[in-house]
């Protein structure tokens, strides 16, 4: 694209919801924040209590809870109880995608007890955890041991189960891949009540590769074994400003972690962590980090910045100072670096509480931040939810690294959202073709960032109100998302399913590959027990009748495919 001027749009007439959203901060301050803080504190006490239990006790409780899940599945009457889903309330999920399927009749399975760290195995360098363990909980246990998950998603509340069944990324994903790529084994309760351990090289290897992105529609995840890596006490972070057009920014971002000579596996040339934040069509800050010891960080002349304190400037605003200050280096405590975006929810906090980034608020009430996303959803109501779907964008575009410049220009043209977040990740060439997969023949081109075994992708994070909305102009959020999804399909990109989607079933399976997923659905008898991943991600309210009709249609289609005679 050469013309980056956004299209002229007519002014939009304000309605009552606009004013409700504008003054929603009143509810957030007096209701959401106090309740959020209380819940965070109670959860913390529960985590501490769990950590004090012996391994034997935690394992015993885990086995008992698994038995309850098995019993619930075996007691289910398919004709009477409908499809299986978890008992978690629709508003509790962190993601923004539709969860209206829970409003219809379903057989609910309670997994709320599965929130324990079962074992930290130093010899195997593996953490065995239950699905409701979140990132804040696991990092609080591992970092003091100078260990960490290979990929630690930034927000504290993100759970292991969501990051596996859905999507998870972090600034280390250019080395280790997505969160699911770091999993060594899954413990799954199948539709028939069997409990299996799936690894990449045992009899359930097909299930192992099919679980990521399946949204819990192949079985119920009850534990996972996840790769650990050794870490140091600090992150040495370099802030580097990049000024130019969007293509220049894209190239500067690529050069920050992908050597042009193709030596992508050389730890001397590739940083441990990478992210870039784009503040306007002409300004960005690239950040690269490397683990550093306490001794190095505390050497004379080095600057230590504890970004986790409640009164500190929000991280994205602090990083923006590099545009005026120029390149600089500082040391951040490792765990505080991992969760640097938690307090302000990237930059969404600015929309939720417009003055929460001010010094006086940070000093007085910053310790209450962040509001729990689940409570924000629980207090928004149907009208506000629809407003956000139309007037707000929370999307991630996973695109090949060499197409990042095109993606940035597209987002500017169609959505005009800033800041933008860039985070690279490897997409591996696996023994089986999974729902997301590299471009065919990528290993022949060996573009910047690619290796023989993986193609480098980038998450373009688009989170904020579009420019037209901020200027009071008309904006069709559904149409913008629809165009984005078409662009991703045409450019071999992917859309994480936590977000609101406008995809039809046909286009959904153009974006994702259905082969292995549908094979496992039939082989492990998930059809008729768990809804399909498209149906679970589909936008819109579902009545009981619609649920029954779609269940039956899916069953008939699946059985027809199974019953077809072999050629």
Automatic annotation (TrEMBL):
InterPro entries in the record: Diminuto-like (IPR040165), FAD-bd_PCMH (IPR016166), FAD-bd_PCMH-like_sf (IPR036318), FAD-bd_PCMH_sub2 (IPR016169), Oxid_FAD_bind_N (IPR006094)
Disordered: region residues: 538-567
Annotated keywords: Membrane, Oxidoreductase, Transmembrane, Transmembrane helix
Main location: membrane
EC numbers on record: 1.3.1.72
Membrane topology per record: Single-pass membrane protein
Ranges where the FAD-binding PCMH-type domain occurs: 52-231
Subcellular location: Membrane
The keyword Transmembrane helix is assigned to this record: yes
GO molecular function terms attached to this record: Delta24-sterol reductase activity; FAD binding; oxidoreductase activity, acting on the CH-CH group of donors, NAD or NADP as acceptor
Transmembrane segments: 21-45
Coiled coil feature spans: none
Pfam short name (any one): FAD_binding_4
EC primary class: oxidoreductase
A GO-annotated cellular component: membrane
Protein name: Delta(24)-sterol reductase
């Amino acid at each position: 694209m050469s013309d980056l001027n956004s299209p002229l749009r007519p002014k939009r007439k304000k309605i009552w919801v606009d004013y409700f959203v504008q003054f929603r901060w009143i509810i957030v301050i007096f209701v959401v924040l106090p309740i959020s803080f209380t819940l965070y504190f109670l959860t913390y006490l529960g985590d501490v209590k769990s950590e004090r239990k012996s391994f034997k006790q935690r394992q015993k409780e885990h086995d008992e809870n698994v038995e309850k899940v098995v019993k619930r599945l075996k007691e289910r009457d398919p004709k009477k109880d409908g499809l299986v889903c978890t008992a978690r309330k629709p508003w509790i999920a962190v993601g923004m995608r539709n969860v209206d399927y829970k409003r219809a009749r379903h057989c609910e399975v309670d997994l709320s007890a599965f929130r324990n760290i079962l074992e930290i195995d130093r010899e195997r360098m593996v953490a065995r955890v239950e699905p409701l363990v979140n990132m804040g909980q696991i990092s609080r246990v591992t970092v003091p041991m100078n260990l960490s998950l290979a990929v630690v998603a930034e927000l504290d509340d993100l759970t292991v189960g969501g990051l596996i069944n859905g999507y998870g990324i972090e600034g280390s994903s250019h080395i280790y891949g997505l969160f699911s790529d770091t999993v060594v084994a899954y413990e799954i309760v199948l539709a028939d009540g069997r409990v299996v351990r799936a690894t990449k090289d045992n009899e359930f290897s097909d299930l192992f590769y099919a679980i990521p992105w399946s949204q819990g529609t192949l079985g119920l995840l009850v534990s996972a074994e996840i790769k650990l890596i050794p870490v140091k006490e600090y992150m040495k972070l370099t802030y580097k400003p990049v000024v130019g057009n969007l293509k220049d920014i894209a190239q500067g971002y690529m050069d920050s972690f992908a050597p042009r000579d193709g030596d992508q596996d050389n730890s001397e040339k590739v940083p441990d962590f990478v992210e870039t934040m784009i503040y306007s069509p002409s300004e960005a800050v690239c950040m690269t980090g490397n683990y550093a010891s306490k001794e190095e960080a505390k050497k004379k002349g080095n600057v230590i910045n504890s970004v986790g304190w409640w009164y500190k400037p929000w991280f994205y605003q602090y990083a923006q100072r590099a545009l005026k200050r120029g390149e600089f280096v500082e040391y951040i405590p490792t765990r505080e670096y991992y969760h640097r975006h938690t307090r302000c929810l990237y930059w969404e906090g600015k929309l939720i509480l417009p003055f929460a980034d001010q010094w006086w608020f940070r000093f007085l009430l910053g310790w209450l931040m962040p509001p729990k996303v689940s409570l924000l959803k629980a207090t928004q109501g149907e009208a506000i939810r629809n407003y956000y779907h139309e007037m707000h964008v929370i999307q991630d575009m996973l695109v090949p690294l060499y197409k990042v410049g095109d993606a940035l220009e597209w987002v500017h043209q169609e959505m005009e959202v800033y800041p933008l977040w860039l985070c690279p990740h490897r997409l591996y060439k696996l023994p089986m073709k999974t729902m997301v997969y590299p471009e065919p023949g990528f290993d022949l081109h060996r573009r910047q960032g690619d290796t023989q075994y993986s193609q480098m992708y980038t998450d373009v994070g688009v989170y904020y109100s579009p420019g037209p909305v901020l200027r009071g102009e008309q904006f069709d959020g559904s149409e913008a998302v629809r165009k984005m999804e078409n662009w991703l399909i045409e450019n071999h990109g992917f859309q994480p399913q936590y977000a609101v989607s406008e995809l039809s079933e046909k286009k959904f399976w153009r974006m994702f590959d259905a082969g292995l997923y549908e094979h496992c659905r039939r082989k492990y008898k998930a059809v008729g027990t768990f809804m399909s991943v498209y149906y679970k991600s589909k936008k819109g309210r579902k009545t009981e009748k619609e649920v029954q009709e779609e269940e039956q249609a899916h069953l008939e289609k699946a059985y027809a495919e199974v019953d077809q005679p072999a050629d």
